[in-house]
Amino acid sequence: MKTALIPEFEQERLKALSEYRILGTRPEQSYDDITHIASLVCETPIALLSLVDSDRQWFKSKVGIEDEETPRDWSFCAHAIHTNQPLIVNDALQDERFVDNPLVCGDPKIRFYAGFPLNNETEHRIGTLCVIDRTPNQLSANQLQIMEALSRQVVAFLDLRKRSMNLLDSFCLESKPSGIISTCSYCRKAKDERGDWVHLDQYLAKRSTLSFSHGICDSCIEEHFPEVLEAWQAESRESGQPVQKPAQVLSDEV
């Protein structure tokens, strides 16, 4: 097996990859749509959005395999990121670089590989959009054009992600935005003047005359405490009384 050489500007390339803050993130529909289209268009059982990290290739999106990543030393994509042109391997058993590669000798038994480099705005190739078959194959001129367009679309999504993350960072670093409360989009905590994240009711209580009562809404009871809801429903059936709303039962004044 011939291991791919390390690109000349590897540290800059890895820095460019890290700026997307995407390694290890959950699957996303926008990327999954692209790999599914690639698989359908090229009529291959496997399609991958592969990002080449320092010692692994990690799959942001995948069709046809279960693995999340493979060692970089085994990676076809590590070879593909050396040029702007796609890497086409019609038959891996006829290519000295890959003939004894573990991904050829074992699962997923690669024979055909076509990898299209993901070239970002600074001309760093951070990974590939690739399609794989278990039999020798080749792509038509139309398939090549579509794959090149899809690889550009992947980079467009990644760049949009980076700009959005940078914008969010800039907003969160603003210490006292006028008339604006900075809240987390996920847990709904608010950031105070010291930069600490606190519950929104705590934030407002310190800055207003508002008081709060706490409870658990019906949907949260169903999601987080299903056994409690089930017990109440069982008691209701036995007693013949209607089930009280969870929010009526689990609430307290503060």
Number of strands: 10
The CATH superfamily of the largest domain appears as GAF domain
Specify the CATH class of the largest domain.
Answer: Alpha Beta
> What proportion of the residues is helical, as a percent range?
25-40%
Total individual domains: 2
Instruction: Provide the CATH architecture of the largest domain.
Output: 2-Layer Sandwich
Indicate the mean pLDDT.
Answer: 87
Rg, Å, rounded: 26 Å
SS-based class: alpha+beta
Helical stretch count? Answer: 9
Give the neighbour order of strands across the main sheet. Answer: 3-2-1-6-5-4
What is the helix/strand order?
HHEEEHEHEEHEEHEHHHE
Your description of this structure?
This protein has 254 residues and is α+β, with helices and mostly antiparallel strands. It has 2 domains: 10-167, GAF domain (Beta-Lactamase, 2-Layer Sandwich), CATH 3.30.450; 190-253, no CATH class. It is built from 9 helices and 10 strands. The strands form 3 sheets. It has a 6-stranded antiparallel sheet with strand order 3-2-1-6-5-4. A two-stranded antiparallel ribbon has the order 7-8. Strands 9-10 form a two-stranded antiparallel ribbon. Helix 2 (29-42) runs antiparallel to helix 5 (141-173). Mean pLDDT is 87; it is low at 247-254.
